[in-house]
Amino acid sequence: MSQEPPIPKELWDLIPPAAQAALLALLGQLQAELTDLRQQVADLNARLGQNSQNSSRPPSSDAPDVKRPPPREPSGRRRGAQPGHESHHRPWLPPDEQVPRKPTACRRCGEPLTGFDPQPLLHQVLELPPIQPLVTEYQLHRLVCPRCGTSTCGTLPGGVPTGQQGPRLQGVLAVLTGAYRLSKDQAAALCDDLFGIPICSGTICELEQQTAAALAPVVEQLREHVKTEHVNVDETGWREEGKRAWLWVAVTGLVTVFHIARSRGGAVARSLLGPGLHWVVTSDRYSAYTWLALRRRQLCWAHLRRDFQAMIDRGDAGSAIGLELLLFSDDVFHWWYRVRDGTLKRSSMRTCIA
Is the separation of the CB atoms in 330 and 323 below 8 Å? Predict the structure, then answer.
């Protein structure tokens, strides 16, 4: 197909054919560069319009002019638990001491009172006992043989740790630095302040390694369990020994497994999820999960809804589609909440959103 001349035809015919070809080639190159630059500008404008509501950016990165979602309309209901809400109470604990308190006289007329209430009102006060370390001292005697002069030392009983920390203390330290994310210095200060146990950060590091080794068989069982259930998976940046690493997490209905790796590649995802997938994996669009079969992969709804909002915010031909998708996701979650609460069958939900 011949290209239309860029100038009036009568002027174009005055140009030699070789010059015409050079001009057309140059024009095609400039048009391609212009198209590329326009796409770059569109991409940059889209990035400038990103915020925590239409992308994965945290709310702390939002500019001051970003509008927050409008507050919900008042429902007209009073604050607190609503009728039909399952009540939750602090459980009664077995008492270590019971203190009966009986009135001695009527609070109205002063008549002396006697008797017994089979169902008295209960008031429990919880208190911590005085905390002091339980110290067991093993005295290893060294005795000299009267016959040959050899010195023999007594040995520790079986099960006694060679260090100065017992199993319960070691477990507490593992929980403090692991589940509760205290630093080594904070855990050491807590032990000294609350328990009266002096300990240094280096010892806590050694105990962490010992605890990890003791729990390795249990962790391996949990990793195998993750490979047999529907799972949500994600990864984030991490620092390990001062070097860049990645913290992977796999969440099922019963367990959560964390795994620290130097790589963010798909090989780590395969080892975490297993090769023979027959269940649904929920993830974001990161390329490490592209090996998953489409019928077994669910894109994260939080990411999808932010993508729909981004389509709306761009204000182009796709905005109407983004609005329809966002409204559709509202309907999906409306019916799903009823399935979760037990007021709608899953089969009926499929009919409602079809």
Answer: no
Strand 243-251 with 256-261, pairing: antiparallel
**HEC profile of 166-194:** CHHHHHHHHHHHCCCCCCHHHHHHHHHHH
Q: How many CA atoms lie within 13 A of 344 on its CB side?
A: 17
Structure tokens at 343: 């007021």
**CA–CA separation, 213 vs 221, rounded Å?**
14
Burial class from Cβ neighbours inside 10 Å (0-12, 13-18, 19+) for residue 291 reads middle
Tell me how far the alpha carbon of residue 340 is from its chain's centroid.
21
pLDDT tens-digit profile of 303-324?
999 989 888 888 888 899 999 9
Long-range contacts formed by 212-220: CB under 8 A, 24+ apart: 219/257
- Closest-CA residue to 188 (of 180, 203, 200, 202): 200
CB 306, CB 319: distance < 8 Å: no
Burial of 123 (0-12, 13-18, 19+ CB in 10 A): exposed
Give residue 64's pLDDT band: very low, low, confident or very high (50, 70, 90).
Answer: confident
Query: 242 exposed, middle or buried (CB, 10 Å; 0-12, 13-18, 19+)?
Result: exposed
Positions of E strands within the chain = 142-144, 151-153, 231-240, 243-251, 256-261, 281-283, 297-299
pLDDT of residue 81: 67
Determine which of 4-8, 102-106, 125-129, 170-174 has the lowest per-residue pLDDT on average.
4-8
CA distance 352 to 173: 51
What does the pLDDT look like over 77-121, one tens digit per residue?
Answer: 777 666 766 777 888 999 999 999 999 999 999 999 999 999 999
